[in-house]
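User: Fold this; tokens only.

Assistant: Input:
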Amino acid sequence: MVNHPIDMVIWLVLLVAFSAAEAMTVGLVSLWFALGSLCALLMSLFIENIWAEISVFLLVSIVTLLLLRPLMNRYFSEKDMKHTNLDLVVGADGVVLEEIDNLFARGQVKVRGQVWSARSQSGQTISAGTIITVLRIEGVKVFVQPKESADER
């Protein structure tokens, strides 16, 4: 039935290579080509025309890339995923433990149970006990603003 086992070996090697690359990157980079390789491998079991196999590989790869990638990106968007605990701090509320004064480079806040060195985003002094919202992190410092200011945005 199969006169060209080399075709099957080539498609199998490509399938493994694309699958391994996808497993290493986890970024939906080569999944499409792995699917195309799988279809070409299955086709090589029944047809001994390398050009037909290549055509199936390209067609399946391109169609799955164009149709499925936007759908997959919608469900697995990186911007929606939190990668570290630091990502959870940005946007969180906290309380000022030590008055924040950028001029004297001092200030501490407690956010999500952790104490951080803090600076005021606007440069204004923020009194101890004030509820704040974390806007960003630079190194080991959080940049904050009073919660009322964050709610008004």
